[in-house]
Amino acid sequence: MTEFPEAAVNEPTVKESTLLGATEIRALAASLNATPTKKLGQNFVIDPNTVRRIVTQAHVSASDVVVEIGPGLGSLTLALLPNVAKVLAVEIDPVLAGALPSTIALHAPNLKDNLTVINADAMRITELPVAPTHLVANLPYNVSVPVVLHFLETFPSLTEILVMVQAEVADRMAAGPGSKIYGVPSVKMAWYGEVTKAGSVGRNVFWPAPNVDSGLVRLVRKERDFDPELRELTFTIVDAAFGQRRKTLRTALGSALGSPQIVEGILRDAGVDPGLRGEQLSLQDFVAIAQQAKKVI
Ligand code: SAM
User: Fold this and answer.
1) Which residue from 93, 119, 143 has its CB within 8 A of the most atoms of ligand 1, so it is best to mutate?
2) Cβ(75) to ligand 1 under 6 A?
3) Which of 46, 69, 203, 219 can pair with 209 through a Cys bridge, CB separation 3.0 to 4.6 Å?
């Protein structure tokens, strides 16, 4: 009988990571001399169940490339890595960005090569080393809406996103016409796809605990039959309509489209009653207004 030395046995690579709890997060921050700042929305997840839940809700698979905005100390990154092909982590804080590779090497040694850390402001990212299929993030609350819109516009390869945001923002992102919370984020998100809420998250899973609850939001990209060139004008009209949300469209759209006569003509041609308010219009109505406006202004 031939005996094989242990080293010659071809062991499968173990795609595992150990997740970070409260003790590890605090110790890691202390070792980096890092104090979480409000300005950068630094509330770190200290609960392994929460990051597992986010990954389950993210609908990712082994071939996916995930862009994570704001990996922080790595809680969510460690939960993502065993489940996807690659994580592109964009972190603005140079200390946290610098420490992330060693955290991953320690807690997920076999997966460290699947991580690329980019030390940058996510709002300024215009290209990535690999086209991302998914965006998954516990977002810094102060920039959550613009950053999601920026990535959806910049990376058409993104088919699905799952983000944790302030509960109130989650509600706004997923709201439909006719409700009080329907507004600019609702319409602009709807331009890119189907938006749904994917759960609520309490305050105690974070360190430091924020003074608001959080929510998970999913967007599944949908091919629209609108002309993509109409996006900018549609968004300008949306901003104007909700900028004065108590006013009727006849008045509110003046700043974006011109005199009351011009506005009235555009709205009638679009089949939209000028006496309505922005909160009563669907995305399709806003696009119809932009279509008509393009012919006139
Ligand atoms: N993902 C980590 C977690 O779940 O524990 C941290 C989430 S924390 C809510 C937000 C993170 O986003 C912080 O690490 C912060 O430094 C980072 N951040 C804030 N603004 C950013 C920006 N404009 N671009 C990239 N990262 C940003």
Assistant:
1) 93
2) yes
3) 203
The CATH label, of 3.30.420.40, 3.40.50.720, 3.40.50.150, 3.40.50.2300, for the domain at 22-221 is: 3.40.50.150
- What is the position in ligand 1's atom list of the atom closest to the CA of 90? 25
Out of 28, 39, 91, give the residue to mutate to test ligand 1, the one with the largest number of ligand atoms within 8 Å of its CB.
Answer: 91
Q: Which residues of 1-18 are buried (b: 16+ CB within 10 A; e: fewer)?
A: eeeeeeeeeeeeeeeebe
Rounded Cα–Cα distance for residues 27 and 44 (Å): 13
Q: Enter the tokens of residue 36.
A: 């979480």
CB of 122 sitting under 6 A from ligand 1: yes
CATH 1.10.418.70 assigned to domain 228-296? The reply is no
Q: Is 0.85 surpassed by the pTM of this model?
A: yes
pLDDT per residue rounded down to tens, the chain (297 residues): 445 444 444 445 678 999 999 999 999 999 999 999 999 999 999 999 999 999 999 999 999 999 999 999 999 999 999 999 999 999 999 999 999 999 999 999 999 999 999 999 999 999 999 999 999 999 998 899 999 999 999 999 999 999 999 999 999 999 999 999 999 999 999 999 999 999 999 999 999 999 999 999 999 999 888 999 999 999 999 999 999 988 999 999 998 999 989 999 999 999 999 999 999 999 999 999 999 999 987
| 68 Cα nearest atom in ligand 1 | 1
Question: Is the four-CA dihedral 234, 235, 240, 244 of positive or negative sign?
Answer: positive
Please give the distance, rounded to the nearest whole angstrom, from the Cα atom of residue 95 to the centre of ligand 1: 12
- 70's torsion region: left (phi>0), alpha (psi -120 to 50) or beta? left
Show me where the domains of the chain are located. Answer: 22-221, 228-296
Q: Which residue's CA is the nearest one to ligand 1's atom 14?
A: 72
Task: Please give the Cα distance from 156 to 143 (Å, whole number).
Answer: 20
